[in-house]
TrEMBL record:
Stretches for region Disordered: 1-37
Source organism of this protein record: Araneus ventricosus (Orbweaver spider)
Designated name of the protein: t-SNARE coiled-coil homology domain-containing protein
Signal peptide interval: none
Domain of life: Eukaryota
Length: 264
C-alpha cells in the first residue's frame, strides 16, 4: 500500500515537474524573444543615429571646406592685386631711374666736354708759353695802391728783413686768378721793387715770391720742390701740375643700365 501511494506521488511530482518545465521553457522563450526584439530595435536606432551623425559630419566638413576655399580665394585675389600694384610701382621706378640715369649721363657728358675744353685751352696756352719768352704786360686792373710796394726799391740801405716782410704781405693769388696773371703781376712788382738788382737776382726772387703767392698748397709745394731758378720754368711747371690735377679729378664715370651693361 505504501508503495502504491509513493508511486502515485512520484508520478504526480513528475507531471508537475514536466508542466513547470514546459511553462518555464515557454516563459523563457517569450522573454528571450522580447529581449531580442529590443536589442534589434536598439541596434537599428543606433545605426540610424550613426548614419545621422555621419551625415552631419559630412555636412559640417563640406561647410568648413567651402568656407576655407572662399577665404583662400579671397586671399589669393588680394595677393594677386598687391603683386600687380607692386609690379606697376617697380616698372614706374625703373622708368624714373632710367630717366634719372639719362639725365645724369647727359650732365656728365656736358661736364666732361667742358673740362676737356678747358684742359685743351690750358695745354694750348702752355705750348704758346713754352714757344715764346716770358714777357707779360702789366695789368692795370691788378695795380696796387700801396705805396710801400710801388715806391720801395731795395737799395742796400734798407733792412732786407723789413723790406722782404713788406713785400711778402702785399701779394697773394686771388680766388679765380690764373697763374699766368699772377706771374705777370709778380714780375711787374719785382721790376718795381728790385730795379737796381741784377737780372739773375730778380729772377731768383721772382720765383720765390711767385711760389709763395700760389694759392693751391699742393701746386705750391710741388713747384717749390723743383727749385726753379727762373720764373718762366716755374710758371710752366705749375700750370702743367694744375692740368694734371684737373685730369685726375675728371675721370670717366660709368653707369649701369637696366640690362646690367656698363656704358660711359
Amino acid at each position: 500500500r505504501d508503495k502504491e501511494i509513493y508511486g502515485e506521488r512520484t508520478r504526480e511530482n513528475r507531471k508537475r515537474d514536466a508542466i513547470w518545465t514546459r511553462g518555464n521553457e515557454k516563459g523563457t522563450g517569450r522573454y528571450e524573444s522580447r529581449i531580442g526584439k529590443r536589442i534589434e530595435q536598439g541596434q537599428a536606432e543606433m545605426k540610424k543615429g550613426q548614419e545621422e551623425m555621419k551625415k552631419g559630419q559630412e555636412e559640417m566638413k563640406n561647410q568648413i571646406q567651402s568656407h576655407v576655399e572662399n577665404q583662400v580665394g579671397e586671399i589669393k585675389d588680394h595677393v594677386n592685386s598687391c603683386i600687380e600694384r607692386i609690379e606697376d610701382d617697380v616698372q614706374s621706378m625703373k622708368r624714373d631711374i632710367g630717366d634719372v640715369k639719362g639725365e645724369v649721363q647727359r650732365k656728365i657728358e656736358e661736364v666732361e666736354e667742358k673740362v676737356q675744353g678747358k684742359i685743351g685751352d690750358l695745354e694750348k696756352r702752355l705750348c704758346e708759353l713754352e714757344d715764346r719768352p716770358l714777357n707779360f704786360p702789366a695789368n692795370p686792373e691788378l695795380t696796387y695802391s700801396r705805396p710801400t710796394v710801388k715806391s720801395l726799391t731795395f737799395d742796400g740801405q734798407t733792412s732786407w728783413i723789413v723790406f722782404k716782410t713788406q713785400f711778402d704781405v702785399t701779394r697773394r693769388q686771388k680766388p679765380g686768378e690764373s697763374l699766368q696773371v699772377l706771374a705777370a703781376d709778380v714780375e711787374r712788382l719785382m721790376n718795381l721793387a728790385y730795379a737796381e738788382c741784377p737780372q739773375d737776382v730778380r729772377e731768383g726772387l721772382a720765383v720765390q715770391f711767385f711760389v709763395d703767392a700760389i694759392r693751391d698748397e699742393d701746386t705750391q709745394l710741388c713747384t717749390r720742390l723743383m727749385d726753379f731758378t727762373d720764373l718762366k720754368s716755374a710758371l710752366s711747371y705749375s700750370m702743367k701740375y694744375e692740368v694734371s690735377k684737373i685730369s685726375m679729378h675728371t675721370r670717366p664715370i660709368r653707369l649701369e643700365d637696366n640690362a646690367g651693361k656698363k656704358k660711359r
